[in-house]
Design brief:
The protein is an alpha+beta fold and 298 residues long. It has 8 helices and 12 strands. The chain has a 5-stranded mixed sheet, sandwiched between helices. It has a 3-stranded antiparallel sheet with strand order 1-3-2, with helices on one face. Helix 5 packs across helix 7. The longest helix has 25 residues. The two termini are 33 Å apart.
Length: 298
């Protein structure tokens, strides 16, 4: 969320589950290799304020307009990696079987945690039957429910927790155990087990977007201190703060060290911007790349 308290701004919404519930909601996707996530695509949730032409058609149509709202969003957010065979881990808001299958058609392996209830339960997932099948099984036991949808293999990876069965839908994933170990406290005391591939991917990647947002607000968010209260500026502060976190994590990746605290990075970035050696054409003068003040990285 990009914090904003004026309900008359374009795209204003309140999402109560968010740490900053009021403002503009952005959908985002991040790559977190090496534990230093880079947010590489964002899309504002326009809602009823999505612009239209005078004839009623969309001013900026998507190439996926024939898809449902959620499927279209999934395809738009992953468009740059279509055809790459990469794995995309999504939260329960995207546990839509049609979306997972659409990603598969585009050469992307999607997976999403299934947590919805009632009428929002995804079609084709026999939740009650799976839960009944796991009754009496030990914590950590894994099985995979295999279906065929639209000529493609559709998988429901399941593992037993103490009071429920965790489920992840996907079109990929092996049942072999990985090196990732989990501990659980059950009625018989503590026990450990190893995750399979799909759950390992979920546990590794599920917090990448949150990690970027936490750094963006830690400890001071730009939108909280930016004095100009104008809607375009609010969007600019969001993009600036994302770029700032990306730069910090990119530097840490390149140097093979942990990312410094965001305030440390911001202070030194501000100094470099004020006391730089750029000419009017944007070319470095006497200062050569690799020289100058460091960024607090040992």
């Amino acid at each position: 969320m990009n914090t904003w308290l004026n309900k008359n701004c374009p795209g204003f919404m309140i999402v109560e589950r968010k740490p900053h519930p009021a403002g503009n909601e952005y959908h985002s996707i991040a790559d977190g290799d090496d534990g230093k996530p880079i947010m590489w695509r964002i899309k504002i949730q326009e809602g009823k304020d999505r612009p239209k032409k005078a004839d009623g058609t969309w001013a900026f149509p998507s190439q996926f307009e024939n898809e449902s709202k959620t499927v279209k969003l999934m395809l738009e957010m992953t468009e740059p990696i279509h055809g790459t065979g990469k794995i995309v881990t999504m939260d329960s808001g995207f546990c839509v079987s049609a979306g997972i299958l659409a990603l598969h058609d585009k050469g992307v392996y999607g997976q999403a945690l299934i947590k919805k209830r009632g009428r929002y339960w995804p079609r084709g997932v026999p939740g009650d039957e799976i839960n009944k099948h796991f009754e009496g099984k030990q914590i950590g036991e894994f099985e995979c429910f295999v279906q065929e949808k639209e000529g493609k293999q559709f998988l429901i990876h399941c593992h037993k927790e103490d009071k429920y069965v965790c489920k992840v839908m996907s079109t990929h994933g092996r049942m072999e155990e990985t090196d990732r170990v989990a501990w659980r406290l059950g009625k018989d005391g503590w026990s450990s087990f190893k995750y399979t591939e799909a759950f390992t991917n979920h546990c590794i990647a599920k917090h990448w977007v949150d990690d970027v947002n936490n750094r963006r607000h830690s400890p001071i968010g730009l939108e909280d201190i930016w004095a100009t209260k104008w809607w375009p500026h609010r969007q600019f502060t969001f993009m600036c703060s994302v770029a700032e976190v990306n730069a910090n994590n990119s530097l840490a990746r390149a140097m093979g060290v942990p990312a410094v605290h965001q305030v440390v990075f911001r202070k030194q970035l501000a100094k470099e911007m004020m006391y730089n050696k750029l000419t009017e054409t944007g070319v470095l003068g006497t200062l050569q790349l690799g020289q100058g003040r460091g960024l607090g990285v040992p």
